[in-house]
Specification:
Shape: globular
Distance between the termini: 45 Å
Radius of gyration: 37 Å
Number of helices: 43
Strand content: 5-15%
Helix content: 25-40%
């Protein structure tokens, strides 16, 4: 082992020396533009100047004396014989040896040094050596200079992944040694976020894994594989850990239980090169095993193996832990314990603690002193400002906001980003917010947070920190610094200019004045970061919470910076630098530099200002710009492209066959084909000068054109890998991925390709006789044309099919092109022309076409034949996919059966369901996670699947969704799919497709991106399907939803948002928070009334209005707006609320209360007779009283963030009234709290709702979607009545924002009285999967009960029989229904616990107890079993096969829970 040479240094971590930035720019890149700015200077208390000097050279301290390894705490003198005697020591005495003087290791911050006095005891009389007390108390974190190793026999890594993740998050070890991972050799990769995995899987002939070892190494430690000689007696994997000044080797070991001592002796010789070996040795000795303490005779193989381990350790001067006799293994049946989990170290062991039990083994945490090893936590890079600690609470941020506002009130800083960062960090120091110092205190995840626990167990992305980056020559870059340089070199090459190319950019003149940015625009930009977590800061360490906590003065400073940038037309130099993070693109077999995507992290304040400019640019471009682009556009998704593609293909198939006008000869049906282009690194090739010129052509203001063109000039970046940086590089081309303006620049740049693809094609010369009206080929005779016209074949002049281009749609840089026609030659002509256009454009812009580009011919049936021929994109021949191809996340096959797509979705979500079952989370958290990760995956393209996929394919996804619902509700796998979904209150795939298809149809019908033409064709498509010869054909998702479109009268039209540059003479005030911080559930009605009245009284003299909405049980709603008749402005108590005039508003027959309230406010503000314009300079204060907090909060977000059409109507009206002399305040008050104005409005709204004649009003998009979804379910024969009722109730409840009645939350007060275990007991009873009643435990899986009821003998025993028909069950409710188990859970639990012991013996006989040796034998893991019950290991355990009375004797509910958890 390589020993470190810095024993006496105080700071031995990787941060002892700051990272030395190379600060190198390639010579080719340095010729284009000026040199980049140097990196920030070293940390100092004062803010940095605009141009900081380079950091001074680091001077290391004097080198300490060389490190001398301490001897082990005990040695055998003389050496023990190879074979242990039957009694006695055989002439060997174990002498304790004093350890070497303690190393000057740095202690934890604030910890007192510990002094341990060790006296030399007399020679012992037994072989058990005396053990020194541990140097640290259990549970303390590892200090700097120590290596923490956690070892565990996990007995199935996938099965216990949730517990394993939680344990790792709790102890935060450097290295995790796992044994018996039981991973199959061909199974998926095993990984945990924050750790790199090194594993060895045992080759097994069974379908599931067995044995196996794994090593998890923290990602902030440099590690490389360490080769060990193989031996059949043991399984071992090892790595070599390296850090500045030293290295050591660590291995994870598993010794099989049946290994003979002689074989183990030879196997241990292969581990001699390891410095630390930890694992399950299956070896017992009185030195570490409490169960055999005092017994020195090795009377079995396990104890003989213990002697061999101890003999080998003493021979090689190694220490064996645990350091005192203990227990590390407990049998599942509780009969027997042992200590077989050991750590053998060539270094001193400072602590070795046995922790919690995860499997049948306990966790063992060991610390080994290693000078130079940092404490657990990522080393942080050098920063000018230290980052704010995530432990800062709300009170800390309130102090920060006050300090920042006070600083801005005293002296406003210069309008620069550097001054903004300095002022923010000064406010942080003034507010005494905690900061992160050094390498300790790095941000960790809370193991109690469900999403944090899920993120640890299921990491989303892989960074360059986690893998070895392959160089171009094939060698691997292992250290973070090497990875950063390799990646930086590659990223600089793809951002460089090609041969013969140059950047031609001349900024436009800025003569016209710029409208200053308002506080409303700053608020709208900052609102994007208020609810988001984990927004990465830039190099100035300004986090999002700093900016969102700013008050009016701080936000005015941000507006001043934006105004200065707009006036100069140039971006600040500090915003041109970026830190780049390399993310692995995924789904690849290599980890070369080209397999990583660069994500740039610029200054966060600059990103906020970019968003302000982006909003103005998008508004200037208008909604009709670039209608073929579906990426980075509001109201457009990737699903829309696939929806449009499948709609065109299916409509082409459903068109009647074309027949010849000469003789009625039948011809082939319409044919369809498509090409799916993939552009390589398109974002990195964007020329911002070209994009800015296109923006000028589209009419953007000159200052926006100048900023867009300047955005890509003189940009520099450096790559960060594991907090190590590369040298600075220059990016000549490219839109930085991660920036806000980058997507807009890309769209402006790629629009030229869309224009070229949409241009008409040149006419193709033809041979033969063609009709010029309909372009149908006729007979050779010239007499064919008059005969053709006489038969009415030319009623319209159609374009030449050869001149019509193929349809092209973009989603970001993914281009999808397709076409359909009766002629194969026409289809090929259009597609080949598209290939030529793409090839020319790519060559002109320096973009490469990826070999992932593919094509597909769509066939109405397998018998259809269509040969398009060869298609070329330059020299690349486009391959045709015959099985399936992925198009924007959906796998399409030629016949559009989507069986492959459904199979891929099911394969993707089933492992997540298995992982979710293993996580120790409650029902609500599991349901929320499964809705996001399971249903979120299945819902993508669900309307397409539900419309065209076969029932068999849909069932594959439904079973996978139900599998996750069983995991959510802790139901066994034998539970039915429908029962599991009903218990979890989650829909099936068909229900999701219904709703999404209706939503897509209504959204497209309302306009946007030119898709209304597809909607207008729905009527004719549905009419054709009604014909006899087309009734059995499949339809597209749009036509599928159009069948119930007539059920909804009209949908409210879209309303344009308020312009960004709108000015308010009197800015409206929205009081959306609860008065005095009260809640509806807090206090009594007088307290809420008093708080509401005090709020209204504090507003002073005003003209008063009130609004309210009402909804009945049928979903019909109405609203009312009141204007109190007062001749002058009055205080609220002086207003006569009985004297008013009102406006009635009807909200439709399916709506919710917040929408009714919003409609009433809009009608109030739009009623001109109540708002007479005021003279110039006059001001009238107005107060509007509302009891809808959700409406007030939506309005309080500002005019630029209003999304609903009715909310946009309100802000348009507020703008008109504010500029007409009215200062309006909308105040929220509590409903039904006897507030006089609100009660008057509520009474009037209720009266409007009770009127017989109700006007038909346009409904909202959400309400119309629900109505169409419910009606669509009524016409689908496959859906039963119970599912239809459940769907209707759930969807209506979603719209009305109430709780569904068929879910346990309807009786939440009753369910709070029972524990989670009791709730799961009732759930299993309600679903009919109660062990001992509905099922019994068989030899391998659950078997349905077949014996008669022991209480009445009248029917087969089941939960349904006990509830509905058994006369002796004494069901406590008069209505004998399973649904009664929902409403009175406490009474149901008492009934079940009283009933189950009366049932007597159920199930198989008890299993035979096993010996210690047999219990430790390898058993198949549940994770690879194919049996349905394989996920619940305790269903097959012996303690589930005993008498029911004894099962529930001690803790009945807890014991029942053990059957499944």
């Amino acid at each position: 082992m390589k020993r470190p040479a810095d024993q006496g240094r105080e700071d031995l971590g990787p941060l002892a020396a700051p990272p030395q930035s190379t600060d190198v720019i390639d010579k080719e890149s340095s010729t284009n533009g000026s040199a980049p700015l140097p990196p920030p200077q070293l940390q100092q208390p004062l803010p940095p100047p605009p141009q900081p000097p380079p950091p001074p050279e680091y001077e290391p301290p004097d080198a300490p004396p060389p490190y001398v390894a301490p001897p082990p705490p005990y040695l055998f003198l003389p050496r023990v014989r190879r074979r242990p005697p039957t009694r006695g020591l055989g002439g060997g005495i174990l002498w304790p040896v004093l350890p070497a003087p303690p190393l000057p290791l740095p202690l934890d911050e604030g910890a007192e040094p510990t002094t341990i006095e060790v006296a030399l005891p007399p020679p012992p009389a037994c072989t058990a050596p005396p053990r020194a007390p541990p140097l640290r108390t259990p549970g303390a974190p590892p200090r700097a200079g120590s290596l923490r190793v956690m070892q565990l026999n996990v007995n199935g890594a996938i099965t216990r992944l949730g517990q394993l993740v939680a344990t790792i998050a709790r102890h935060r070890p450097h290295v995790v040694c796992l044994s018996e991972t039981k991973l199959s050799p061909g199974g998926p990769a095993f990984s945990i976020q924050g750790y790199r995995t090194y594993e060895l899987r045992r080759a097994s002939s069974s379908s599931f894994g067995a044995g196996g070892v794994a090593l998890l190494v923290a990602e902030d430690i440099t590690a490389s594989p360490f080769t060990l000689p193989p031996h059949p007696a043991i399984e071992a994997v090892a790595v070599k850990l390296s850090w500045p000044g030293g290295s050591l080797s660590v291995g994870s070991v598993y010794v099989r239980p049946g290994v003979k001592p002689n074989a183990l002796r030879a196997a241990l010789a292969s581990l001699a090169a390891l410095d630390v070996a930890a694992g399950d040795f299956n070896a017992r000795h009185s030195s570490w095993d409490l169960a055999v303490a005092g017994s020195e005779v090795p009377n079995d193989d396990a104890r003989r193996r213990g002697w061999e381990v101890l003999d080998w350790a003493s021979t090689h001067a190694k220490i064996v832990g645990p350091l005192a006799p203990t227990v590390t293994f407990r049998h599942n049946n509780g009969n027997g314990t042992s200590a077989v989990d050991l750590v053998v170290s060539g270094l001193a062991i400072t602590r070795c603690d046995v922790r919690e039990r995860v499997s049948d083994h306990h966790v063992v945490c060991t610390e080994v002193p290693v000078p130079g090893m940092a404490s657990r936590g990522k080393p942080r890079p050098w920063r000018h400002f230290l980052p704010v600690a995530p432990s800062a609470c709300a009170a800390d941020w309130r102090r920060f906001s006050t300090a920042a506002e006070s600083a801005y009130a005293d002296a406003a800083p210069a309008p620069t980003m550097a001054a903004l960062a300095a002022s923010l960090h000064a406010a942080v120091d003034a507010a005494r917010l905690p900061r992160l110092h050094g390498s300790g205190g790095s941000k960790g995840r809370n193991a109690r947070d469900p999403w944090a626990l899920w993120g640890l167990a299921n990491p989303k992305s892989v960074r360059a920190d986690d893998v070895v980056v392959t160089r171009p020559d094939g060698s691997g870059a292992g250290s973070p610094a090497e990875k950063a340089e390799v990646l930086a070199t590659h990223f600089a090459s793809i951002h460089a200019l090609g041969a013969g190319r140059s950047v031609d950019w001349t900024p436009p003149s800025l003569s016209s004045p710029v409208t200053p940015f308002s506080a409303t625009e700053v608020d709208a930009a900052l609102s994007r970061y208020e609810a988001r977590k984990g927004v990465a800061p830039g190099e100035d360490q300004v986090v999002a919470r700093m900016l969102t906590s700013l008050g009016p003065r701080g936000r005015a400073h941000i507006a001043a910076i934006a105004n200065r940038i707009a006036e100069t037309g140039r971006w600040p130099d500090e915003h041109r630098r970026a830190e780049t993070i390399a993310l692995w693109k995924g789904n690849r077999a290599t980890t070369g530099a080209a397999d990583f995507r660069p994500v740039s992290l610029t200054l966060l304040a600059g990103r906020v200002i970019e968003r302000m400019f982006l909003r103005r640019a998008v508004e200037a471009l208008g909604p009709s710009w670039f209608q073929t682009q579906f990426g980075f556009r509001d109201g457009a998704t990737a699903e829309d492209v696939v929806t449009e593609l499948t709609t065109d293909v299916l409509r082409a198939w459903n068109n009647p066959a074309r027949t010849s006008m000469l003789g009625g000869r039948s011809m082939e049906r319409c044919k369809a084909a498509g090409i799916f282009f993939d552009l390589t690194d398109a974002f990195c090739r964007v020329d911002t000068a070209v994009a800015a010129k296109r923006a000028a052509e589209l009419g953007l203001p000159p200052y926006l054109v100048a900023l867009l063109g300047d955005f890509g000039q003189r940009r520099t970046f450096r790559v960060r890998v594991a907090n190590r940086f590369s040298g600075w590089r220059r990016a000549v081309l490219g839109a930085p991925q991660g920036s806000v303006l980058g997507p807009l620049l890309f769209l402006l740049w790629v629009e030229s390709l869309a224009i070229a693809l949409a241009a008409p094609l040149p006419t193709k010369p033809r041979s033969g006789n063609w009709c010029p009206g309909c372009w149908q080929q006729l007979a050779e005779s010239n007499l064919a044309l008059p005969a053709h016209r006489a038969k009415g074949g030319c009623k319209a002049q159609l374009p030449d099919p050869y001149t019509v281009p193929a349809k092209s749609r973009f989603f970001a840089d993914d281009l999808t092109t397709w076409t359909a026609d009766y002629s194969t030659d026409v289809v090929k002509h259009r597609l080949q022309h598209a290939c030529e256009v793409v090839s020319r454009w790519a060559a002109a812009h320096g973009v490469a076409i990826s070999n992932k580009t593919s094509a597909m011919v769509f066939k109405a049936s397998k018998c259809s034949r269509m040969e398009v021929g060869e298609l070329r994109v330059g020299d690349f021949v486009v391959p045709f996919a015959t099985d399936s191809t992925r198009v924007l996340g959906i796998r399409l096959d030629p016949e559009l059966h989507l069986h492959t797509h459904c199979r891929s979705v099911a394969d993707a979500i089933r492992p997540k369901a298995s992982l979710l079952r293993s996580l120790p989370l409650p029902f609500g958290a599991k349901r929320l996670i499964w809705q996001a990760v399971g249903y979120g995956k299945a819902a993508y393209g669900a309307h397409i699947v539900a419309a065209v996929a076969s029932p068999t394919a849909m069932r594959i996804v439904d079973l996978a969704l139900a599998y996750g619902c069983k995991a959510v509700c802790s139901l066994p796998p034998v539970c039915g799919a429908a029962a599991a979904r009903a218990e979890a209150a989650l829909p099936c795939l068909s229900e999701i497709g219904h709703r999404k298809a209706c939503s897509t149809l209504l959204r497209w019908e309302r306009g946007g991106l030119g898709r209304d033409t597809l909607v207008t064709g729905c009527a004719s498509a549905v009419a054709r399907l009604a014909a006899a010869d087309c009734s059995a054909r499949r339809v597209s998702a749009l036509d599928w939803a159009y069948r119930v479109r007539t059920r909804v009268a009209s949908v409210e039209a879209a309303v344009a948002p308020l312009p960004c540059e709108s000015q308010f003479e009197h800015m409206p005030v929205i009081l959306a928070e609860a008065p005095e911080g009260l809640k509806k559930a807090d206090g009594n009605e007088p307290a809420r009334k008093a708080a509401s009245d005090r709020r209204l009284i504090a507003l002073g003299k005003r003209m008063w209005f009130a609004t309210d909405g009402a909804v009945n049980r049928d979903g019909r709603g109405a609203g009312a707006a009141l204007r109190f008749r007062q001749l002058e402005a009055l205080d609220y108590p002086s207003v006569d609320v009985r004297d008013y005039e009102s406006i009635a508003v009807h909200a439709g027959d399916l709506t919710h209360a917040p929408r009714c309230e919003a409609l009433a406010i809009a009608a109030l503000l739009e009623h001109d007779p109540w708002w007479a314009p005021q003279p110039d300079g006059a001001r009238v204060d107005v107060g509007i009283v509302t009891d809808s907090m959700s409406t007030a909060q939506s309005l309080a977000s500002g005019p630029l963030l209003a999304a609903e059409p009715v909310h946009r109507r309100i802000w348009h009206a507020l703008s008109r009234r504010a500029n007409a002399g009215f200062a309006i305040t909308i105040a929220f008050v509590f409903a039904h709290a006897d507030v006089a104005a609100n009660e008057a409005a509520d009474k009037r709204a209720t009266g409007v709702l009770a009127e017989a004649a109700v006007a038909v009003m346009p409904t909202s998009l959400k309400c119309a979607t629900v109505r169409m979804t419910c009606d669509h379910a009524d016409i689908v024969p496959e859906i039963d009545d119970a599912t239809k009722r459940s769907l209707r109730m759930r969807l209506r409840a979603d719209v009305r924002r109430t709780t569904p009645r068929d879910h346990r939350a309807a009786t939440i007060a009753a369910w709070r009285q029972v524990s989670g275990r009791a709730a799961r007991l009732i759930s299993r009873a309600r679903c009919g999967v109660l062990i001992g009643v509905d099922f019994v435990v068989g030899p391998t899986h659950l078997v349905r009960m077949s014996q008669l009821c022991p209480l009445c003998g009248g029917a087969v025993l089941s939960t349904e029989h006990l509830v509905t028909s058994c006369p002796a069950s004494k069901f406590p409710f008069p209505t004998r229904s399973v649904m009664e188990l929902l409403f009175e859970p406490k009474k149901c639990v008492e009934w079940l616990l009283e009933l189950l012991p009366k049932l007597g013996m159920v199930g198989a006989p008890p299993a035979v107890a096993t010996t210690d040796e047999e219990e430790e034998e390898d058993t198949p893991s549940e994770q690879g079993a194919t049996d349905p019950a394989a996920d619940d290991e305790d269903d097959r355990s012996a303690n589930a096969l005993t008498d029911v009375r004894s099962l529930y004797a001690a803790d009945p509910v807890a014991h029942f829970e053990e059957q499944f958890e």
